[in-house]
TrEMBL record:
Note: Reaction mechanism of ThiL seems to utilize a direct, inline transfer of the gamma-phosphate of ATP to TMP rather than a phosphorylated enzyme intermediate.
Protein family according to the UniProt entry: Belongs to the thiamine-monophosphate kinase family.
Residues that bind ATP: G149, D150, R175, S245
Gene field: thiL
Organism lineage string: Bacteria, Pseudomonadati, Acidobacteriota, Terriglobia, Terriglobales
Leader peptide range in chain numbering: none
Binding-site list for Mg(2+) 1: T66, D67, D150
Residues the record lists as binding Mg(2+) 3: D50, D96, D243
Binding-site residues for substrate, renumbered to this chain: H74, E286, W341
Reported function: Catalyzes the ATP-dependent phosphorylation of thiamine-monophosphate (TMP) to form thiamine-pyrophosphate (TPP), the active form of vitamin B1.
Protein name as annotated: Thiamine-monophosphate kinase
Length: 347
């Protein structure tokens, strides 16, 4: 192994012991609290060696996902409380596992931050500790151990999360399973993240005290639908599924493309979150709810693990000259363009 740079060469070691090694030790201590308490852990070796070692069960497949969160793109230091940035970092990965019906097994966090975020501020707290508070609180809730990661000083803050999950062999929920005639459902409500982000950008000070997860904060503290995804998988209810990160208009298009089908959505049936408009629900993104389809004969409950499920439309055959996704609104039929979030699209 290449010799590590001297402690402090990466993070300046302030009075809080902010050097890389001290920070890593702090993370390791906190991570240990979850991994040791997790029963039936698949982790043989977590933080401390060159790799983590995991031992999958014979009858399971491993689901792996990675998501990058970058300052100014996914969060702003002057808008988002650090606890929210930590929570959102992990929530994005957990939401991808939920979309496949996978049970979370382990998380890996690669963190790049400017040195000042690893140094105590005027309130005596370091940004990085508050970030970890938010991330670890959600990790605790889902009993997912932090099994490794990487640390570096960076000109901007960024966090990449890798999530590993387990799903019964051959049973993962895919984007490609939808067929004409299937009904389309969403969990929870849509547009809440975009609505809260709009309020946050208008008055960030009003959100500075939101330092702990709460169900009425869909942007700062989205709740990944892990239990719901696992339920859909276990009961074989969903024919296709994905999570809503970019917005319904863009994400439903992904299901259509992967399944080679088209879709019709009833605007009036879309469950709007508090303060959300229809465009926010269609295109806002970051709701981290599940979008899934089910065969016409499949019974779909109104609630799954405490979260409402709403039927919003149906899968149809692709027809020449017809848009892939159509929106039925006030008796008229319009093409629903994929106007959700797209990187490199000039935002
Ligand atoms: N830089 C990359 N290299 C390889 N695969 C990628 C890269 N970026 C995205 N992908 C893959 O493309 C697919 C779609 O990615 P993305 O839209 O980011 O998914 P999601 O919205 O679920 O996070 C995924 O299978 C993802 O793993
Ligand atoms: C400062 C800031 N501006 C805008 C947004 C809105 N936003 C950023 S990325 C994104 C879409 C989801 O992110 P992406 O990187 O596409 O995640 P993925 O689909 O790959 O999971 C949205 C709605 C935000 N969260 N923060
Ligand atoms: Mg995206």
């Amino acid at each position: 192994m290449v010799q590590k740079r001297r402690a402090g060469a990466i993070f300046s070691p302030g009075s809080e012991g902010g050097g890389e090694l001290a920070l890593l030790e702090a993370i390791r201590r906190r991570a240990g609290q979850i991994s040791s308490s997790k029963s039936g852990s698949r982790i043989r070796l977590g933080i401390g060696d060159d790799c983590a070692l995991l031992r999958p069960a014979k009858d399971e497949e491993i689901a792996i996902t990675t998501d990058l969160s970058i300052e100014s793109r996914h969060f702003r230091l002057d808008w988002h409380p650090p606890e929210s940035v930590g929570h959102r970092t992990l929530a994005r990965g957990l939401s991808d596992l939920a979309a496949m019906g996978a049970r979370p097994v382990a998380a890996f966090l690669s963190l790049g931050i400017p040195a000042r975020l690893a140094t105590a501020g005027s309130d005596g707290k370091r940004w990085v500790d508050r970030f970890l508070d938010g991330l670890m609180a959600l990790a605790e809730e889902h009993q997912v151990p932090l099994a490794g990661g990487d640390l570096a000083e960076s000109p901007v803050a960024l966090a990449d999360i890798v999530l590993m999950g387990a799903v019964p062999r051959g049973k993962a929920l895919l984007r490609s399973g939808a067929k004409p005639g299937d009904r389309i459902f969403v969990t929870g409500k849509l547009g809440g993240s975009a609505a809260e982000l709009a309020a946050l950008s208008a008055e960030p000070e009003a959100f500075a005290s939101k330092t702990a997860a709460s169900a009425d904060s869909p942007h700062l503290y989205p709740q990944p639908r892990v239990a719901q995804g696992m339920w859909l998988c276990k009961k074989r209810t969903a024919s296709a599924a994905m999570d809503l990160s970019d917005g319904l208009s863009t994400d439903l298009r992904h299901i259509c493309d992967e399944s080679h089908v088209a879709a019709e959505i009833d605007a009036a049936k879309i469950p709007l979150a508090k303060d959300a408009t229809l465009p926010m629900a269609l295109h806002g993104g970051e709701d981290y709810e599940l979008l899934f389809t089910a065969r016409p004969s499949t019974k779909v409950p109104r609630r799954i693990a405490g979260v409402a499920v709403t039927e919003i439309g149906r899968i149809v055959r692709i027809r020449k000259g017809r848009p892939v996704v159509t929106l039925l609104t006030d008796g008229s039929v319009v093409a629903l363009e994929a106007k959700g979030w797209e990187h490199f699209a000039g935002r």
